[in-house]
Specification:
By secondary structure, the chain is of the alpha/beta class. It has a domain of 267 residues: FAD/NAD(P)-binding domain. It contains 14 helices and 30 strands. It has a 7-stranded mixed beta sheet with strand order 9-10-22-23-26-21-29, with helices on one face. Strands 2-13-5-4-17-30 form a 6-stranded parallel beta sheet. Strands 3-16-15-14 form a 4-stranded mixed beta sheet. The radius of gyration is 23 Å and the shape is globular.
């Protein structure tokens, strides 16, 4: 594809439709999540004692923290500290999710941020973490990834199976997704690997955390397997720092507790019980884990001193190597109605790009509980979420968002009928860093991803875009494209939509390279900042201190598989089993 050509006459309608990917995580509250409210060990931080002690303190009740805490509780006393609340509590999931990405409340389950690259992003703030907010696709890491990580393959497989028994399902594949699968095979993304969790070259159907009734299951479900007397979960608990002390005979500072605040601003202290095998474990995610290490005095000395933080360990690699897999998508209007579907099919190409798709029943949102009428909306990418706006966040007032939503309601319904085909690249090679903006633990740090800084990433994106072009032109996908719509006009319409805060290139012809750079978005697969070998050792212990580990996606140099949640969950279980085993060794 040498160039992407002129806009079609339908651009006003189609450009409005080309929001971008991952439309509707319309996730119904599962029975398991409702039951969490009745678990005795789940409490509000305000109800916690001012001083307490445990064998393990796990910071972050997300995709890694929940399976980790549940596993450790089998034989120890564990405290799990989560800065957010229960998933989708007391609200329909659709409305809660839209409000979440709009970040209108301190209690919202997602905290929106904009990277220094100008890409709008979101950070989970809810028990269950990103598994409460994502598209639900489940696929394992490749065997090569497992070997490169130095993991025990047998324990990895048993940990994956533990996860899969708890919350993974086989999706029903609707016609739009089936057409995408057949089109990928037609254009050469072969072989057909059928339904599998494995990461192998070709086209496959993966697992999902949505059950057959459409209900979302999350990492919070793992807590139902915890030993009730072994686990305490505190919600709305914001950890401000890890406590360190000097200890006779120990050459490094020793972590011995944490300080957290409840929503009223009351500070609580939690200490590790006596015993050299008790630990603080940080599972606060790619942004939260390096941020908390730095707030606690473990990080680049000059940066910490600039913020007035006492340096415990000068660790220059904390916050470095943070990467986000760039995602680009195109909206394909459909001449026929399209069923709602999130990611179910993936094409794993030999060129290092992954092709997925989402479709929608006119990308609607139910206008009231139980109603069969649908408002015209792009779900989590509608104006209400702030994902599509190019205004600075402070200018995204409720009135401005309402005007944008009303404008969408006046559009022809055809603007919302179709689906997004998206591509994400392997790796990526390009990376950036996380830095503190402030010493307030509730604030997001500054994040720079440096999308496409390395030529290899851009080359992979171009291959992905060219694969999508062939898919759109394929015979297998022809029922879901207008016969008179050119590929060039479809891409140009998508390119004209403001999906990020980057400067727009005003021209009527774009190369695939320009399309990749102009329409870059996140697929929420960011990782790094506490790399194995740089910040933590092979057992995830933090270098330069004792009694402290980091176990989450911040330890990854590259994103595992096409979608990382399976491996992050697996890692929580995997390390929980290993830590338990170490504890009982003489």
């Amino acid at each position: 594809m040498a160039a992407l050509g002129r806009a079609s006459s339908s651009a006003p309608v189609l450009a409005a439709a080309a929001a971008v990917l991952l439309s509707l995580c319309l996730a119904a509250l599962s029975e398991e999540q409702e039951q969490l409210e009745n678990l005795r060990f789940v409490r509000h931080a305000q109800d916690a004692p001012l001083v307490s002690s445990y064998n393990y303190i796990v910071i972050g009740g997300g995709t890694a923290g929940c399976p980790l805490a549940a596993t450790l509780s089998e034989h120890s006393r564990v405290l799990l500290l989560e800065r957010g609340g229960l998933p989708y509590a007391n609200m329909s999931s659709e409305q809660h999710f839209t409000d979440a990405l709009a970040d209108t409340s301190p209690a919202s389950p997602a905290q929106r941020f904009i990277s220094e690259d100008g890409v709008v992003n979101a950070r989970a703030r809810v028990l269950g973490g990103g598994s409460c907010l994502n598209a639900g696709f489940y696929t394992r890491a490749s065997n090569e990834y497992v070997r490169a990580a130095g993991w025990d393959a047998r324990l990895v497989n048993s940990s994956y199976r533990w996860v899969e028994r708890s919350l993974v399902f086989r999706p029903d594949v609707p016609p739009w997704q089936a057409a995408l699968r057949d089109a990928l095979l037609e254009v050469g993304v072969t072989p057909d690997n059928g339904f599998t969790f494995d990461h192998v070259t070709g086209t496959k159907i993966g697992g999902t955390i949505f059950d057959n009734s459409g209900q979302r299951h999350t990492a919070a479900d793992f807590l139902r397997h915890a030993r009730p007397r072994g686990l305490t979960v505190l919600l709305y608990a914001t950890v401000s720092r890890i406590l360190f002390k000097s200890q006779d005979g120990v050459p490094y500072p020793v972590a011995y507790g944490v300080v957290f605040s409840d929503p009223l601003g009351v500070q609580h202290r939690v200490y590790l019980r006596d015993g050299d095998k008790n630990e603080v474990i940080v599972s606060a995610g790619t942004l939260g884990s390096p941020q908390l290490l730095m707030l606690s005095g473990v990080g680049p000395q000059a940066h910490l001193e600039a913020h007035g933080i006492e340096v415990i360990v000068d660790q220059p690699m904390v916050g470095q190597g943070v990467a986000d897999n760039p995602m680009n998508s195109v909206f394909i209007p459909s001449p026929v109605p399209v069923e709602l579907s999130l990611v179910q099919v993936v094409g794993i190409t030999r060129s290092g790009s992954f092709i997925e798709g989402v479709s929608g029943s006119e990308f609607g949102m139910p206008v009231s509980d139980g109603a069969l009428r649908w408002a015209r909306s792009f779900g989590m990418l509608s104006p209400q979420t702030g994902q599509l706006g190019t205004l600075p966040p402070k200018q995204r007032t409720p009135e401005a968002l309402q005007r944008a939503a009303e404008a969408m309601m006046r559009l022809d319904r055809r603007a919302f009928r179709g689906g997004f085909i998206l591509e994400k690249i392997l790796g990526p090679v390009s990376s950036g860093h996380v830095e503190l903006r402030t010493t307030d633990p509730r604030a997001n740090p500054s994040v720079t991803f440096n999308y496409f800084r390395e030529a290899e990433d851009l080359e992979r994106c171009v291959h992905g875009i060219e694969t999508i072009e062939r898919v759109i032109q394929s015979r297998a996908f022809s029922n879901f494209t207008y016969a008179n719509a050119s590929v060039e006009s479809i891409f140009t319409d998508s390119a004209n939509f403001p999906v990020n805060l980057l400067p727009r290139h005003v021209n009527d012809s774009r190369s695939p390279e320009q399309y990749c750079m102009d329409t870059v978005m996140t697929i929420w697969h960011y990782h790094g900042g506490c790399h194995v070998g740089a910040v933590v050792d092979d057992d995830y212990r933090v270098f330069g201190v004792q009694g402290l580990r980091v176990i989450d996606s911040s330890t990854f140099k590259y994103s595992p598989g096409t979608n990382p949640q399976a491996t992050v969950m697996m890692l929580g279980r995997y390390m929980g089993v290993k830590i338990q085993s170490e504890r009982w060794k003489k």
